[in-house]
Structure formats: C-alpha cells, structure tokens
Amino acid sequence: MAVSVAIETPLQDDVRSLVSDLNDHLLPLSPLEFQFKMTVEQMADADTTVLVARDETGQAIGCGALKDHGDGVGEVKRMFTRPTVRGQRIGSALLEAITALASDKGMNRLVLETGSTSGFEPAWRLYERSGFTRCGALLDYPDSEYSAFYEKRLALAPAQ
To answer: By the 8 A CB rule, do 50 and 62 touch?
Structure first.
C-alpha cells in the first residue's frame, strides 16, 4: 500500500474521525482519569504539529502528533492507525516522520506516555522497535500503574 505522511491541520473531518476512533479504542483499556487525551482543538495549538498518514486514495488512515515542551523535549501524542491497516507499518512511518520533525526542530529528546495494561502491547512493540526505552514518570504525568513511559535520545543535526 502506498502511504503518504504529511503535516496537516487536525481541524478536518477525517482527522476528527481518526481522533474519535482513537478515543473509542482507548475507553475500555484504562480508567478515564488515566487517559491523557488531547482534543483536535488542542492539537491545533502552535506547540503541536500533527502528521496524518493517507492511503493512495487520500483516505486518512493514521495520525500522530509532536508537542514541543521546550528545552529540547518533544512529546509523541495521539498515535493511532485504523484497525484495517494495522500490521502494514503505518505507525512506524508516522513515528519516523515525527522523529525526523523533532530532530529538524532541534529537539534532543522524545518522550511519550502510553497505557500499561493489556491491549497496549502493539504500541510498546512499535516504540521499542523505533529505539524508545522505558523510563520513569515524566513531564506532569502521574506515576501510576496505568501508564508506561518511554524516551528516545535524538542526535542533534550538524550546524549548517
């Protein structure tokens, strides 16, 4: 399947649909108070860049976001691929694009929070295959049994 990944606004109906499907997917996996969601409006803030994966017909099949926390730290947010395309490395393509964007922005550390309960195993595999390692609680997330935290150090691009 030919897939393109590009920076887009989250304020589009098909991206809203992806985020809604992500929220529905997360509902049964952990308590609501331990689901740290961003709305599409929050994803449209200046500190966040959204990437959308589209198939050859232009249909949105996945998304992910990079939130800039300053001091060289970027956070991977709202990673999701439609169930119909899972296993086709769409998540990997999104994560590679987010990592490249973070590096281009001069970030030297990527972090993320994901669930720690059954159902999150595919996410753990994706992050670990992409060079992320588990770490302790980060940013302003509570340290709880429902969260798994990951980080990845990025090489700084050479000065031009």
So the answer is: no
